[in-house]
Amino acid sequence: MVAKIGRGQNLTGVLTYNQLKVEKENAEILFTHKIQETPDGHYSVAQMLRSFEPYLLANRKTEKTVLHISLNPDPKDNVSDEKFNTVAQEYMEKMGYGEQPYVVFKHTDIERTHIHIVSVCVDEQGRKISDSYERRRSMDICRKLEEKYQLTCAGEKESKQDEKAFRVVDYKSNDLKGQVASVVRYLPKKYAFQSFGEYNALLSLFNITAEEVKGELHGKPKQGVVYFVLNENGKKASSPFKASLFGKSAGYIEMQNHFTASKEILKESDARPTIRKKIETTLQSAIDEQDFKKQLTEKGINVITRKNDTGRIYGITFIDHNSKTVWNGSRLGKELSANVFNDWWNNGLQPEVKNSENTKTISIKTVSENLPAEKPHDLFDFLSNQSTIQSNDIHSSIEGFGGILPEAQGEDYQEQDFANKMKKKKKRKRGQ
Predict the structure, then answer these.
(1) Taking a C-beta distance cutoff of 8 angstroms, is the pair 376, 360 a contact?
(2) Environment class of 11 (CB within 10 Å of its CB; exposed 0-12, middle 13-18, buried 19+)
(3) Mean pLDDT throughout 239-256?
(4) By the 8 A CB rule, do 409 and 7 touch?
(5) Any idea where the MobA/VirD2-like nuclease domain is (predicted)?
């Protein structure tokens, strides 16, 4: 179980965010402590606020009085409501907030069911409750709660994080945004690739594709990236997801920076000759395309080809998971370009590896022709039509929401998107 703690100034905004999910039946209130009861058992933001007001009015000098905590068990734990309540109460007690008013919300709108706890960090006398060594104390408490209630240890989960990140996205399941996020936020941290085509080859392993977008937004030239989920036939099976939903690392500027950095890294790397040798060895023994790809997969290398409508191979990319590098065939050498493999797999001209004293070369007739280019296209009409919350009351109450959302394990991207929208609303209002 992982706990993430957020602090801020706008209690109304935090309560509104959680209550909106309740109203949409994507969340429910599991437990309240020192919160005024209601006759029908239903709560409103205004009604919950009244229970916190005495603490906020007594506040002496604490700037960020609002506490927003998320507790995130492993999805496989299948935690019951009763256990969630018990865990939340014990966590708050051990963290020093046991005497504070707080509300426990259970979120169910993504696969990873988790709870949010909203409270304040000043006591009835207006004094701030100590947050010394908060992160360390929180981690220790989580480990003890895991052991006591037989929950999956977060340490064990983190050790398997790489494996879990490499899950193929299932376009038929829920939470497509979360599935895409787990991939696109992870890959640039681990893999070196030098172009958008190489990045897309890597993404294709997880049924994702990215597209560059160029155009004008509010009269200004813009460049960006959108992501789509693919079905088993490689066709788009989702609406576009803007890169901003997944953080800066998934966006256009950071991608360009990553390409530049990767070029420098790969100049110094010994991966290229190692990968080339494995490919050449496989060429000597493989009988066809399927066998070639199968043998290289067993050596930790995926082969991704790009074909036009007639079946002509105009691109080939090698993804080496041993060195975590991605290479277009032509970067490894002209003897491993797309033309070579098109002549082999489409025209029956298998390349022949010739050994010299110190080097190996591949002899093959190559064909040069105009090949389709991967060009960006205009999608900024979509980017400019963002969905927004229409209620003026909600707009005014969440105006200062900002960055108080706790950064939950695996990231709750709906929360981040919500916070980003609130920041944009606030900027637009100031500019009016």
Answers:
(1) no
(2) buried
(3) 89
(4) no
(5) 23-151
**Nearest Cα to 60, choosing from 101, 7, 132, 121?**
121
Residue 224 in contact with residue 242, Cβ under 8 Å? Answer: yes
For 45, the domain range is 2-159+387-431
Do 130 and 146 fall within a single domain? Answer: yes
**pLDDT tens, residue by residue, 203-221:** 999 999 999 988 876 777 7
| Per-residue pLDDT, 106 | 96
State the angle between helix axes of 289-298 and 338-345 in degrees (0 to 180), rounded to the nearest 10: 130
Residue 143 and residue 15 share a domain: yes
Claim to verify: residue 16 and residue 153 sit in the same structural domain: yes
Lowest mean pLDDT, pick from 67-81, 137-151, 171-185: 171-185
Residue 197 lies in a domain: yes
Q: Are 189 and 247 in contact (CB under 8 A)?
A: no
Q: Residue 357 above 60 pLDDT?
A: no
Does residue 369 fall inside a structural domain?
Answer: no
The answer to whether residue 108 is domain-embedded is: yes
Cα 375 from Cα 25, distance rounded (Å): 42
Long-range Cβ contacts of 423-428 (<8 Å, 24+ apart): 425/388, 425/395, 425/398, 425/399, 426/399, 426/400, 426/402
Rg (CA), the chain: 27
User: Cβ(6)–Cβ(387) under 8 Å?
Assistant: no
Amino acid (one-letter) located at 254 = E
The pLDDT of residue 225 is: 93
Q: Please state, in angstroms and rounded to a whole number, the distance separating the CA atoms of residues 174 and 280.
A: 42
Is the domain of 238 the same as that of 151? no
**How high does pLDDT run on average in the chain?**
81
CB 240 within 8 A of CB 227: yes
Is 279 within a domain?
yes
Q: What is the pLDDT of residues 288-347, one digit of tens each?
A: 999 999 999 999 999 999 999 899 999 999 999 989 999 999 999 999 999 999 999 999
Looking only at the bridges linking them, the beta strands covering 360-363 and 325-328 are unpaired
The pairing of beta strand 313-320 with beta strand 208-217: unpaired
Same domain, 72 and 97: yes
Reported in sequence order, the residue ranges of 78-182 that DSSP labels E, i.e. its strands, are 102-107, 114-120
19 and 140 in a single domain? The answer is yes
Q: What is the pLDDT of residue 411?
A: 41
Residue 231 CB neighbours (<10 A): 13
Confidence grade of residue 380 (pLDDT, cut at 50, 70, 90): very low
In angstroms, the CA 418 to CA 36 distance is 28
> pTM (2 decimals)?
0.50
